[in-house]
């Protein structure tokens, strides 16, 4: 706690986006639920979730996406997984009624080794989390393993190379500095084409991406199907 208070504020926020922990992590979880709301709604539109679908949200943070997904999969099931115990508490609280009814499950676990059986889900989503995974291919291979044949994966990022082609003023003067800083901290800023290439390499078919280059720092959602 004392140590985290001594960190510079921006660093503290960045560390807690990567892996929320302690009091600051709890606050950042609530902040993300607000800040990522429109991105999440857009990503969920791309997923075309059906009433009876079983959906997994990897890196679920405070569980706002789970709540929105559960409203779509109203006859199905939504699971969330995150490696931050604080986020598991927050996501469970945000979805308490659905958890009690058995329609939402929230589990502590790692994207590198998902705590679910093979062929369990119709949709696997990961919103604003892939940059933090130590091995992207391992995470995508895990997503592929837990999807049923015909199931869809959706990888969504708020910061991408899609913004670079025709940057807005905010992207040019603020965004570029921020993404450069993020890259120095070890985050790779990816393009839609790089994401689709990785999905294909992980065994998915029909990989494609949609983007909103002028939103935030270049929204991108890469989609594909398990054969
Ligand atoms: C920037 S937050 C995004 C949270 C949420 N998806 C949203 O859009 O608000 C990234 C989340 O991914 C989680 N995360 C990062 N790496 C992970 C991993 N290897 N396994 C599980 N969760 C991970 C973090 O704990 C954090 O909650």
Annotate the secondary structure layout.
Layout (H helix, E strand, L loop, with lengths): L1 H5 L2 H10 L3 H14 L1 H11 L6 E5 L5 H9 L4 E6 L2 H10 L1 H5 L3 E5 L12 E7 L8 H11 E11 L11 H16 L7 H10 L3 E8 L6 E7 L2
Parallel strand pairs: 1-2, 1-4, 2-3, 4-5
Antiparallel strand pairs: 5-7, 6-7
Helix pairs in contact: 2-3, 4-5
The protein binds S-adenosylmethionine (SAM).
Describe this structure in words.
- With 227 residues, the chain is of the alpha/beta class.
- It has one domain: 3-Layer(aba) Sandwich (Rossmann fold), CATH 3.40.50.
- Helix content is 44%, strand content 22%.
- It has helices at residues 2-6, 9-18, 22-35, 37-47, 64-72, 85-94, 96-100, 136-146, 169-184, 192-201, and strands spanning 54-58, 77-82, 104-108, 121-127, 147-157, 205-212, 219-225.
- It has a 7-stranded mixed beta sheet, sandwiched between helices.
- Helix 2 crosses helix 3 (22-35) and helix 4 (37-47) packs parallel to helix 5.
- S-adenosylmethionine binds at residues 17, 19-20, 32, 36, 40, 59-61, 65, 82-84, 87, 110-112, 127-129, 132-133.
Q: Compounds present?
A: S-adenosylmethionine
Looking at how many chains there are and whether they match, the oligomeric state comes to single chain
Round the mean pLDDT to the nearest integer and report it: 91
Distance between the termini: 47 Å
Shape-level CATH architecture: 3-Layer(aba) Sandwich
Residues in helices, as a percent range? 40-55%
- The total of beta strands comes to 7
By CATH, the topology is Rossmann fold
Number of domains: 1
CATH superfamily: Vaccinia Virus protein VP39
Give the CATH level 1 class: Alpha Beta
Structural class: alpha/beta
């Amino acid at each position: 706690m004392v140590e985290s208070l001594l960190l510079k504020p921006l660093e503290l926020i960045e560390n807690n986006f990567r892996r929320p922990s302690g009091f600051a992590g709890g606050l950042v979880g609530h902040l993300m639920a607000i800040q990522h709301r429109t991105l999440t709604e857009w990503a969920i539109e791309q997923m075309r979730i059906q009433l009876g679908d079983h959906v997994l949200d990897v890196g679920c943070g405070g569980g706002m996406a789970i709540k929105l997904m559960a409203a779509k999969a109203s006859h199905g099931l939504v699971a969330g997984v995150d490696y931050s115990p604080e986020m598991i508490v927050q996501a469970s609280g945000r979805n308490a009624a659905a958890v009690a009814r058995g329609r939402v499950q929230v589990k502590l676990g790692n994207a590198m080794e998902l705590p679910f059986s093979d062929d369990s889900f119709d949709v696997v989503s990961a919103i604003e989390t892939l940059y933090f995974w130590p091995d992207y291919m391992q995470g995508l291979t895990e997503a592929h393993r837990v999807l049923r044949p015909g199931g869809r994966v959706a990888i969504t990022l708020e910061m991408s190379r899609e913004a670079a082609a025709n940057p807005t003023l905010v992207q040019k003067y603020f965004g570029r500095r921020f993404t450069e800083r993020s890259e120095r901290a070890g985050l790779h800023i990816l393009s839609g084409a790089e994401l689709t290439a990785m999905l294909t390499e992980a065994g998915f078919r029909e990989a494609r991406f949609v983007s909103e280059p002028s939103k935030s720092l270049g929204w991108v959602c890469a989609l594909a199907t398990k054969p």
